[in-house]
Amino acid sequence: MSNAIGVAALAIGVLFNIFGCIGLVRFPDIYNRLQAATKCVTIGTCFVLLGAMLLAGSTATTAKCLVCMIFVLVSSPTAAHALARGAHASGVKLWEKSVVDKFDEDGQPGVESGGKK
Fold first, then answer.
1. What are the backbone angles phi and psi of residue 95, rounded to the nearest 5°?
2. CATH number, domain at 30?
């Protein structure tokens, strides 16, 4: 039973990773691309690691997969936020059909308004 659930988790993880990669290619600007990369690839990687945990059973591999899952869950959104904030601060424009720019509205310290200097 756990083998079937492990294989299903691997398949779900691979699908999320594929959708994230498609989003990286298809989305119009860096902010939307970071959204695809952060959400889909983080969830996909965690499902792949969960599947590996289930298939490995109670071994050292399970502990390593758990540590890697925690690392991915913490580092991926943090890195994406830093990249988006840096892109906004350096003046990278949003897609022309974007509706809201929260950094510009909130007047975040260290972020120039609208990319203008």
1. -60, 145
2. 1.10.287
Under the banding of pLDDT at 50, 70 and 90, the label for residue 78 is very high
What ranges in 1-117 are assigned the alpha helix state H? 2-26, 30-36, 42-56, 60-89, 102-106
- Rounded to two decimals, the pTM is 0.78
Return the pLDDT at 110: 55
Query: Is the alpha carbon torsion for 64, 22, 29, 101 positive or negative?
Result: negative
How many distinct structural domains can be found in the chain? 1
pLDDT tens per residue, range 16-71: 999 999 988 998 888 888 888 898 989 999 999 999 999 998 889 999 999 999 99
Instruction: Give CA–CA dist 96/29, Å, rounded.
Output: 9
Which residue range(s) make up the domain with 45?
2-115
Contact call for residues 65 and 50 (beta carbons, < 8 A): yes
**CA–CA separation, 20 vs 12, rounded Å?**
12
Here the tokens at position 27 are: 């989305």
Backbone angles phi, psi at 23, to 5 degrees: -65, -35
